[in-house]
Write a structure and sequence with these properties.
The chain is α/β, with parallel strands linked by helices and 240 residues long. The longest helix has 19 residues. It binds S-adenosylmethionine. The site of S-adenosylmethionine has 20 residues, from β5.
Length: 240
Protein backbone atom coordinates (compact mmCIF):
# COMPACT_ATOMS: atom_id res chain seq x y z
CA UNK A 1 0.00 0.00 0.00
CA UNK A 2 1.29 3.37 -0.97
CA UNK A 3 0.00 6.88 -0.28
CA UNK A 4 1.33 9.74 -2.41
CA UNK A 5 0.36 13.24 -1.33
CA UNK A 6 0.55 15.96 -3.94
CA UNK A 7 1.09 19.20 -2.06
CA UNK A 8 2.82 22.56 -2.26
CA UNK A 9 3.86 22.10 1.38
CA UNK A 10 5.54 18.70 1.88
CA UNK A 11 7.07 19.89 5.16
CA UNK A 12 3.55 20.00 6.61
CA UNK A 13 3.69 16.19 6.92
CA UNK A 14 7.07 15.99 8.72
CA UNK A 15 5.71 15.57 12.25
CA UNK A 16 2.94 13.24 11.02
CA UNK A 17 5.46 10.80 9.54
CA UNK A 18 7.91 11.04 12.42
CA UNK A 19 5.53 10.45 15.33
CA UNK A 20 4.18 7.39 17.16
CA UNK A 21 2.09 4.78 15.33
CA UNK A 22 2.41 6.34 11.87
CA UNK A 23 6.19 6.56 12.17
CA UNK A 24 6.35 2.88 13.15
CA UNK A 25 4.03 1.84 10.30
CA UNK A 26 6.32 3.58 7.80
CA UNK A 27 9.51 2.22 9.37
CA UNK A 28 8.07 -1.31 9.31
CA UNK A 29 7.07 -0.77 5.66
CA UNK A 30 3.40 -1.51 6.33
CA UNK A 31 2.79 1.58 4.21
CA UNK A 32 4.86 3.71 1.85
CA UNK A 33 4.13 7.38 2.37
CA UNK A 34 5.53 10.07 0.10
CA UNK A 35 4.92 13.78 -0.46
CA UNK A 36 5.42 15.26 -3.90
CA UNK A 37 5.65 19.00 -4.45
CA UNK A 38 3.74 19.49 -7.70
CA UNK A 39 5.41 22.88 -8.18
CA UNK A 40 8.34 20.85 -9.52
CA UNK A 41 6.16 20.06 -12.56
CA UNK A 42 5.21 23.61 -13.54
CA UNK A 43 6.26 24.85 -16.95
CA UNK A 44 5.67 28.46 -15.91
CA UNK A 45 8.86 30.51 -16.26
CA UNK A 46 8.22 32.12 -12.85
CA UNK A 47 7.57 28.74 -11.25
CA UNK A 48 3.92 29.60 -10.58
CA UNK A 49 1.27 26.93 -10.11
CA UNK A 50 -1.70 29.27 -9.76
CA UNK A 51 -3.38 32.05 -11.69
CA UNK A 52 -6.17 34.60 -11.44
CA UNK A 53 -9.80 33.48 -11.75
CA UNK A 54 -11.48 33.81 -15.14
CA UNK A 55 -14.44 36.17 -14.88
CA UNK A 56 -12.95 37.91 -11.85
CA UNK A 57 -13.04 37.29 -8.14
CA UNK A 58 -10.72 37.30 -5.17
CA UNK A 59 -7.78 34.93 -4.84
CA UNK A 60 -5.94 32.55 -7.09
CA UNK A 61 -6.72 29.12 -8.52
CA UNK A 62 -4.45 26.12 -8.97
CA UNK A 63 -3.85 25.68 -12.70
CA UNK A 64 -4.25 22.40 -14.58
CA UNK A 65 -0.81 21.91 -16.11
CA UNK A 66 1.44 21.25 -13.07
CA UNK A 67 -1.07 18.94 -11.39
CA UNK A 68 -2.00 16.98 -14.51
CA UNK A 69 1.67 16.54 -15.50
CA UNK A 70 2.51 15.41 -11.97
CA UNK A 71 -0.36 12.91 -12.00
CA UNK A 72 0.77 11.56 -15.39
CA UNK A 73 4.30 11.11 -14.05
CA UNK A 74 3.36 9.14 -10.94
CA UNK A 75 0.13 7.33 -11.81
CA UNK A 76 0.07 3.61 -12.46
CA UNK A 77 -2.83 1.34 -13.47
CA UNK A 78 -3.54 0.67 -9.81
CA UNK A 79 -3.57 4.30 -8.68
CA UNK A 80 -6.71 5.97 -7.37
CA UNK A 81 -6.61 9.77 -7.47
CA UNK A 82 -8.45 11.49 -4.62
CA UNK A 83 -9.05 15.23 -4.62
CA UNK A 84 -9.30 16.73 -1.14
CA UNK A 85 -12.25 19.08 -1.47
CA UNK A 86 -15.04 20.54 0.66
CA UNK A 87 -17.30 19.72 -2.30
CA UNK A 88 -16.56 15.98 -2.07
CA UNK A 89 -18.22 13.03 -0.39
CA UNK A 90 -18.01 13.49 3.38
CA UNK A 91 -15.52 11.01 4.81
CA UNK A 92 -16.97 8.19 6.91
CA UNK A 93 -15.34 5.13 8.46
CA UNK A 94 -17.04 2.86 5.91
CA UNK A 95 -15.32 4.82 3.12
CA UNK A 96 -11.96 4.52 4.86
CA UNK A 97 -12.54 0.74 5.10
CA UNK A 98 -13.32 0.62 1.39
CA UNK A 99 -10.18 2.60 0.54
CA UNK A 100 -7.73 0.34 2.40
CA UNK A 101 -8.08 -2.16 -0.43
CA UNK A 102 -6.51 0.28 -2.92
CA UNK A 103 -2.87 -0.37 -3.83
CA UNK A 104 -1.92 3.23 -4.47
CA UNK A 105 -3.81 6.28 -3.28
CA UNK A 106 -2.87 9.71 -4.59
CA UNK A 107 -4.18 12.55 -2.43
CA UNK A 108 -4.39 15.89 -4.15
CA UNK A 109 -4.17 18.92 -1.84
CA UNK A 110 -5.64 22.19 -3.01
CA UNK A 111 -4.71 25.66 -1.81
CA UNK A 112 -5.73 29.28 -2.38
CA UNK A 113 -9.24 29.31 -3.89
CA UNK A 114 -8.94 25.66 -4.92
CA UNK A 115 -8.65 23.94 -8.29
CA UNK A 116 -9.38 24.85 -11.89
CA UNK A 117 -12.62 22.90 -12.49
CA UNK A 118 -11.06 20.92 -15.36
CA UNK A 119 -8.70 19.13 -12.95
CA UNK A 120 -11.76 17.16 -11.81
CA UNK A 121 -11.60 15.24 -15.10
CA UNK A 122 -8.32 13.68 -13.91
CA UNK A 123 -9.47 12.48 -10.48
CA UNK A 124 -11.37 9.35 -9.44
CA UNK A 125 -13.09 10.74 -6.35
CA UNK A 126 -13.45 13.84 -4.19
CA UNK A 127 -13.34 13.58 -0.42
CA UNK A 128 -14.34 16.19 2.15
CA UNK A 129 -13.54 15.85 5.84
CA UNK A 130 -16.55 17.94 6.84
CA UNK A 131 -18.76 20.87 6.04
CA UNK A 132 -16.25 23.63 6.68
CA UNK A 133 -13.48 25.20 4.59
CA UNK A 134 -9.79 24.78 5.37
CA UNK A 135 -6.98 26.90 3.93
CA UNK A 136 -5.53 23.88 2.18
CA UNK A 137 -5.99 20.16 1.56
CA UNK A 138 -3.06 19.16 3.78
CA UNK A 139 -5.06 18.80 7.00
CA UNK A 140 -7.66 16.78 5.10
CA UNK A 141 -5.03 14.54 3.44
CA UNK A 142 -3.37 14.02 6.80
CA UNK A 143 -6.71 13.09 8.38
CA UNK A 144 -7.53 10.58 5.66
CA UNK A 145 -3.98 9.13 5.69
CA UNK A 146 -4.11 8.66 9.45
CA UNK A 147 -7.53 6.98 9.31
CA UNK A 148 -6.24 4.66 6.57
CA UNK A 149 -2.84 3.77 7.99
CA UNK A 150 -4.18 2.68 11.38
CA UNK A 151 -6.36 0.11 9.61
CA UNK A 152 -3.56 -1.53 7.61
CA UNK A 153 -2.61 -5.02 8.72
CA UNK A 154 -0.19 -5.06 11.63
CA UNK A 155 -0.22 -1.32 12.34
CA UNK A 156 -2.35 -1.70 15.46
CA UNK A 157 -3.93 -4.84 16.91
CA UNK A 158 -7.09 -5.81 15.01
CA UNK A 159 -9.09 -5.94 18.25
CA UNK A 160 -8.12 -2.33 18.95
CA UNK A 161 -10.15 -1.01 16.07
CA UNK A 162 -12.84 -3.70 15.86
CA UNK A 163 -14.88 -2.03 18.62
CA UNK A 164 -14.00 1.53 17.62
CA UNK A 165 -16.83 3.97 17.07
CA UNK A 166 -18.50 3.53 13.65
CA UNK A 167 -16.85 0.16 12.96
CA UNK A 168 -20.09 -1.68 13.76
CA UNK A 169 -22.27 1.34 13.14
CA UNK A 170 -22.37 2.40 16.81
CA UNK A 171 -20.34 4.68 19.06
CA UNK A 172 -17.88 2.83 21.27
CA UNK A 173 -18.89 1.89 24.83
CA UNK A 174 -17.32 3.73 27.82
CA UNK A 175 -13.85 2.52 28.81
CA UNK A 176 -11.89 2.85 32.04
CA UNK A 177 -8.41 2.24 33.38
CA UNK A 178 -6.92 2.35 36.89
CA UNK A 179 -7.49 3.59 39.54
CA UNK A 180 -10.74 1.75 40.22
CA UNK A 181 -11.92 4.75 42.26
CA UNK A 182 -11.00 8.25 41.09
CA UNK A 183 -12.36 11.02 43.31
CA UNK A 184 -15.36 8.85 44.17
CA UNK A 185 -16.08 7.96 40.55
CA UNK A 186 -15.95 4.20 40.32
CA UNK A 187 -15.33 1.81 37.45
CA UNK A 188 -18.59 -0.15 36.90
CA UNK A 189 -18.52 -3.42 38.91
CA UNK A 190 -19.33 -5.58 35.90
CA UNK A 191 -16.01 -4.63 34.25
CA UNK A 192 -14.15 -5.98 37.27
CA UNK A 193 -16.21 -9.17 37.47
CA UNK A 194 -14.18 -11.19 34.95
CA UNK A 195 -17.53 -12.46 33.57
CA UNK A 196 -17.01 -12.19 29.81
CA UNK A 197 -20.65 -12.60 28.76
CA UNK A 198 -21.88 -9.99 31.24
CA UNK A 199 -19.14 -7.62 30.10
CA UNK A 200 -20.08 -8.16 26.44
CA UNK A 201 -23.75 -7.42 27.18
CA UNK A 202 -22.91 -4.34 29.26
CA UNK A 203 -20.67 -3.00 26.51
CA UNK A 204 -23.28 -3.55 23.81
CA UNK A 205 -25.97 -1.84 25.88
CA UNK A 206 -23.73 1.13 26.75
CA UNK A 207 -22.63 1.40 23.15
CA UNK A 208 -26.30 1.58 22.14
CA UNK A 209 -26.99 4.09 24.92
CA UNK A 210 -24.20 6.43 23.76
CA UNK A 211 -25.34 6.15 20.19
CA UNK A 212 -28.98 6.76 21.14
CA UNK A 213 -28.11 9.79 23.26
CA UNK A 214 -25.51 11.36 20.93
CA UNK A 215 -26.05 10.07 17.41
CA UNK A 216 -29.61 8.89 16.88
CA UNK A 217 -29.00 9.23 13.13
CA UNK A 218 -26.74 6.17 13.26
CA UNK A 219 -29.66 4.04 14.49
CA UNK A 220 -32.16 5.10 11.84
CA UNK A 221 -31.30 2.48 9.20
CA UNK A 222 -29.79 -0.10 11.54
CA UNK A 223 -31.22 -3.63 11.46
CA UNK A 224 -31.32 -4.18 15.20
CA UNK A 225 -30.76 -7.68 16.53
CA UNK A 226 -33.26 -9.03 19.07
CA UNK A 227 -30.76 -8.32 21.81
CA UNK A 228 -30.15 -4.76 20.60
CA UNK A 229 -33.92 -4.08 20.40
CA UNK A 230 -34.36 -5.31 23.97
CA UNK A 231 -31.51 -3.11 25.22
CA UNK A 232 -32.78 -0.10 23.32
CA UNK A 233 -36.25 -0.44 24.85
CA UNK A 234 -34.64 -0.64 28.30
CA UNK A 235 -32.51 2.43 27.54
CA UNK A 236 -35.54 4.42 26.39
CA UNK A 237 -37.46 3.44 29.53
CA UNK A 238 -34.47 4.37 31.73
CA UNK A 239 -34.25 7.70 29.89
CA UNK A 240 -37.87 8.64 30.79
C1 LIG B 1 -9.78 27.47 0.65
S1 LIG B 1 -10.11 25.85 0.09
C2 LIG B 1 -10.98 26.15 -1.40
C3 LIG B 1 -12.45 26.10 -1.20
C4 LIG B 1 -13.22 26.34 -2.51
N1 LIG B 1 -13.11 27.71 -2.90
C5 LIG B 1 -14.68 26.00 -2.27
O1 LIG B 1 -15.41 26.86 -1.80
O2 LIG B 1 -15.08 24.84 -2.51
C6 LIG B 1 -8.54 25.30 -0.48
C7 LIG B 1 -8.33 23.82 -0.48
O3 LIG B 1 -8.43 23.28 0.81
C8 LIG B 1 -8.89 21.96 0.76
N2 LIG B 1 -10.07 21.85 1.63
C9 LIG B 1 -10.72 22.87 2.23
N3 LIG B 1 -11.73 22.44 2.97
C10 LIG B 1 -11.75 21.10 2.86
C11 LIG B 1 -12.57 20.08 3.40
N4 LIG B 1 -13.59 20.34 4.20
N5 LIG B 1 -12.27 18.80 3.08
C12 LIG B 1 -11.26 18.49 2.26
N6 LIG B 1 -10.44 19.43 1.71
C13 LIG B 1 -10.68 20.72 2.01
C14 LIG B 1 -9.19 21.62 -0.69
O4 LIG B 1 -8.09 20.92 -1.22
C15 LIG B 1 -9.32 23.02 -1.30
O5 LIG B 1 -9.01 23.02 -2.67
Amino acid sequence: MKISVLTLFPEFFDSFTSTSIIKRAIEQERVTFECIDFRAYTKDKHNNVDDTICGGGAGMLLACQPIVDCLRAIKTDSSVVVMMSPQGETLQQAKVREMISYDHIILLCGHYEGFDERIRDYVDMEISIGDYVLTGGEVAALTLSDALIRLYDGVIAKQSHEDDSFENGLLEYPQYTRPIDFEGKKVPDVLLSGHHENIRQWRLKESLRKTYLRRKDLLVNRQLTKEESKFLIEIKNEDN
